[in-house]
Amino acid sequence: MTGTLLGAPDIGRALTRIAHEILERNDGADSVVLLGIPTRGLPLAERIAHRIAEVEPDFDADARCGALDITMYRDDLHKQPTRAIGTTRVPSAGIDDQVVVLVDDVLHTGRTIRAALDAVKDLGRPKAVQLAVLVDRGHRELPIRADFVGKNLPTSRSERVDVHLEEIDGDDAVILSAGRSDA
Amino acid sequence: MRHLLSTQDLSRDDAILILDTAGQMAATQEREVRKLPTLRGKTVVNLFFEDSTRTRISFEAAAKRLSADVINFSAKGSSVSKGESLKDTALTLQAMGADAVVVRHWASGAAYQLAHGGWLHGSVLNAGDGTHQHPTQALLDAFTMRRHLVGSPEGAGLDGLTVAIVGDVLHSRVARSNVQLLHTLGAKVVLVAPPTLVPVGIARWPCDVVHTLDEAIEGYDIDALMMLRVQRERMTGGGSAFFPSPEEYTRLFGLDGDRLGRLPEHAIVMHPGPMNRGLEISAEAADSPRSVIVEQVGNGVAVRMAALYLLLAGEEGAQ
Amino acid sequence: MSRPIVILNASLYGDTTASIVVEDGVITQVGETVDAPEGAWEIDASGLVALPGLVDLHTHLREPGREDAETIETGSRAAAVGGWTAVHAMANTNPVSDTAGVVEQVYSRGQEIGLVDVFPVGAVTVGLKGEHLSEMGAMANSRARVRLFSDDGVCVYDPVIMRRALEYVKTFDGAVVQHAQDLRLTEGSQMHEGEVSAELGLAGWPAVAEESIVARDALLAEHVGSRVHVQHLSTRGSVEIVRWAKDRGIAVTAEATPHHLLLTHESARTYDPLFKVNPPLRTEDDVEALRAAVADGTIDIIATDHAPHASEDKDCEWAAASFGMLGLETAVGVVQKVLVDSGLMTWRDVARVMSENPARIGKVDHLHGRPLAVGEPANITLVDPKAAWTVSADALSSRARNTPYGGIELPGRAVVTLLRGAPTHIDASLNPPTEGVPA
């Protein structure tokens, strides 16, 4: 089964649901900060933050949303061409004693999240770290799971999952193709 | 990039990538935990054939903040007493498994020879070779200028800026590196020096040359003024001295409070260090709020982290 | 005595085709048809150019002192392979060739090896120090019969010493051979001072440092009525000064090296000390001026300045490396490339600048640089102008490896060298005979 698996309305609904789940799990949003993992985790984190703010008017979406670049924490740097380093922006609320929700587009092997946990550790000491992803496509290589999942997509390893987001790609979609390697 | 030998080898995109990366590195240095795991397992050798504690500790800090192992290797020798040969040293480092060699050498071209001699596989970073090049110094200077003088620095060059470099251009690897890099980044460069300290054959350099500091201040809208160190031996050579006296040099080329006051208000004052206070720069100028000399040192670590990251982090042979 | 040799259908001086018979070290027949003596070795020389054996006025053989870089034997072999039948060995050995004893030793060793006539050049000043004249008379009257005196490697800088030397050599019709380099203007100098040195940060060597000494010495030679030979001209300015001096009737002669006729200061961009030489490689414009000056006779001769160096003196930083490059084995190829194939000169001219003129300046023209004619000593070089080859340092006969031409293709080379009728070099392509010819 290849083609567009999620359209814009599906993505919107999934993010709204994730926002509510985050609120439920943490008894509100008082200590929640979101860290989006560039590239596409960042707009997803911003969207979720704004959805939380719609429910909890005291929640300052801009102050509680940041970016976490994990390039320098990757374990596969020597296997790839040199990557440009992205921006890390710690939310103005800080992360010490906060519940940090990491946000990414696709959860696959878990290695990105492993790197993100190391990166968070160097920024401060959160009360807890949770993980929200738009798509979980399976094939974990590390003992890592997501707390909030937009859509579970059983895929074969050889397939490719591409997430398009309005802010970056001009449209919202999750596309499955018969690519040759990991997404 | 496999080596960083000369600013002349850098395209505008390369240079901006290094500066942008340095920006990210600088941001990490404001955190509580400043060490990054990025170059774990890599070995960086600081190979210094010439004493320079400042440059060495800057590279050492950069490598360590990226978790690389650092080996300091001081090799004695000069043009008079050759000491250990460059080739033998390189073979030793190769045997030790150096991933990168940061080399400071009294001979122009030594870094190039180390990179192209076929003696070692690692990347070579030129930390100053004779009177030729000192690329990370020029990059940290450009980084400092961009922070102060360009509205939104990320991704930007130095287009439209005017930079004056004052002093001993003839013997300065800092000047050579800066002229090339600043030109690549779109800045206009004015060299200010007595004719005895301007190299013969400078005509093709992409810069203007004037012969007094006042002429430069009056003739150009200077955004950054870079003062070069005057080496003592340039004025004590008896019949070979390059200018008549330190006093005359200071009168014509020294930056004092009066000349500082005649610069545009936003202009910054730079110096690669160490300074000769009272000779090329007065204490008043060195310590003024417009002086970014101390900041240059800090930026040096970020720029060197960026250079090490870009040379060492990627897939081997993928560049 | 070596076997008679018949050189069949060679192109004499690149002009007329003729055969040459050599017996007992002397040319006995020259003509379209010749009678081959019994047992003669016949060389099919069709397509080969026959020249009088080449004479190098500027060679460093390094013996005594630096036998790790070159010896009289290895240097003689390199010379023979390069087509030379005589070389003038410079005095900057250790000990310096500043006494009759040293020059006789060098001369005798050359004769003993027998591949090339080695004519020692005597030092002008004791120990090349520029302070006291050496005993030039003793060297002139020794078995080595020294006629040329030079402190080569160092300039005779003091104008009074230079004047005295120019005057003194008149006693035995000698000449002072000057390495023109103002020492003060070149302290620490590494390469030609110009836009490349400015960029590379290598200390500059201004053209004026050579030209000022050339001018001074020409005027001194005029003043005292003596002969000066200027080594390795490298700049357009020097050429113009020599031209002016000759017009004025001053007894000045000048040489250019093959490397200054081919290479430029751009080579320094590799920081490879193989290109470090004294005087330094100059600009394209200087190269053009030198080529034109050789062609029009302003520059009298081509000399190699063959300067072997041990590898540790070249495999190092540019500033720490020794000056100099090999030249004996590549000179013919380079000269053909830049002067003959370019149409500036004929092979007849090459005979003039690489054999006849140097023999005359060196006062050995009773032995070398003789016509290819009956009764003359059989010092003959056969050049194959179609035998292109790629220079490889490891394939050279010299003990040293410091050729700047590694990997470069040269259009031709010497394939046979005869010294007084004895083959000192036979290219493998000619199927050399196994008898009567040195290995």
TrEMBL record, chain A:
A motif (PRPP-binding) lies at residues 100-112. Pfam families: Pribosyltran. It catalyses: UMP + diphosphate = 5-phospho-alpha-D-ribose 1-diphosphate + uracil. Its EC number is 2.4.2.9. One of its GO terms (molecular function) is uracil phosphoribosyltransferase activity. It is an enzyme of class 2 (transferase). It comes from Demequina zhanjiangensis. PANTHER family: BIFUNCTIONAL PROTEIN PYRR. The keyword Transcription regulation applies. Gene3D superfamilies: 3.40.50.2020. It comes from the Bacteria. Regulates the transcription of the pyrimidine nucleotide (pyr) operon in response to exogenous pyrimidines. Also displays a weak uracil phosphoribosyltransferase activity which is not physiologically significant. InterPro entries: PRTase-like, PRTase_dom, PyrR, PyrR_bifunctional. Keywords: Glycosyltransferase, Transcription, Transcription regulation, Transferase. Belongs to the purine/pyrimidine phosphoribosyltransferase family. PyrR subfamily. This is Bifunctional protein PyrR. The gene is pyrR. HAMAP family: PyrR. NCBIfam families: PRK05205.1-3, PRK05205.1-5.
Automatic annotation (TrEMBL), chain B:
Pathway: Pyrimidine metabolism; UMP biosynthesis via de novo pathway; (S)-dihydroorotate from bicarbonate: step 2/3. Residues 2-146 form the Aspartate/ornithine carbamoyltransferase carbamoyl-P binding domain. Its EC number is 2.1.3.2. The keyword Ubl conjugation does not apply. It is an enzyme of class 2 (transferase). It catalyses: carbamoyl phosphate + L-aspartate = N-carbamoyl-L-aspartate + phosphate + H(+). Residues 159-311 form the Aspartate/ornithine carbamoyltransferase Asp/Orn-binding domain. GO terms for molecular function: aspartate carbamoyltransferase activity. Heterododecamer (2C3:3R2) of six catalytic PyrB chains organized as two trimers (C3), and six regulatory PyrI chains organized as three dimers (R2). Catalyzes the condensation of carbamoyl phosphate and aspartate to form carbamoyl aspartate and inorganic phosphate, the committed step in the de novo pyrimidine nucleotide biosynthesis pathway. PANTHER family: ASPARTATE CARBAMOYLTRANSFERASE, ORNITHINE CARBAMOYLTRANSFERASE, MITOCHONDRIAL. This is Aspartate carbamoyltransferase. It comes from Demequina zhanjiangensis. The gene is pyrB.
From TrEMBL, chain C:
One of its GO terms (molecular function) is dihydroorotase activity. It catalyses: (S)-dihydroorotate + H2O = N-carbamoyl-L-aspartate + H(+). Pathway: Pyrimidine metabolism; UMP biosynthesis via de novo pathway; (S)-dihydroorotate from bicarbonate: step 3/3. The keyword Metal-binding applies. Binds 2 Zn(2+) ions per subunit. Substrate binds at residues 60-62, 92, 278, 309, 323-324. It comes from the Bacteria. Residues 49-236 form the Dihydroorotase catalytic domain. Zn(2+) 2 binds at residues 152, 179, 232. It is an enzyme of class 3 (hydrolase). The active site is at 305. Its EC number is 3.5.2.3. Its cofactor is Zn(2+). Zn(2+) 1 binds at residues 58, 60, 152, 305. InterPro entries: DHOase, DHOase/Allantoinase_Hydrolase, DHOase_cat, Dihydroorotase_CS, Metal-dep_hydrolase_composite, Metal_Hydrolase. Catalyzes the reversible cyclization of carbamoyl aspartate to dihydroorotate. This is Dihydroorotase. The lineage of its organism: Bacteria, Bacillati, Actinomycetota, Actinomycetes, Micrococcales.
